[in-house]
Amino acid sequence: MNSDNINTPKLAFIGVFTSVLIFVVILASQAFFYHFEAGLTDQKLGNEAPTQRREIESQENGLLHTYRWIDQKKHTVAIPIDRAIDLIAQEKAKGGGI
What we know:
The protein has 98 residues and is mainly alpha-helical. Helix content is 70%, strand content 7%. The protein has helices at residues 8-45, 48-64, 81-94, and strands at residues 68-71, 76-78. The chain has a two-stranded antiparallel ribbon with strand order 1-2. The longest helix has 38 residues, at 8-45. The N and C termini lie far apart (82 Å). 0% of the residues are buried.
């Protein structure tokens, strides 16, 4: 066989085919990994995880949106986040700093 006669179309086809095959294998591997990982997470956490997460989020939202004492002896209070944002915006509008 003469080394000057390279079958370029065949070589290009093999290269493209191999690239597509590798891409498909990578995607399939990722899909399998994510499916397997989700199964393990569900197995570890059980059905209680969504309930616990909702309870924690509810408690955190309650803390963000209510007035409450942090330390009564030091007269330290927590205010709702929306009110805090309004107060800071008012200070900035008056030219004051934080």
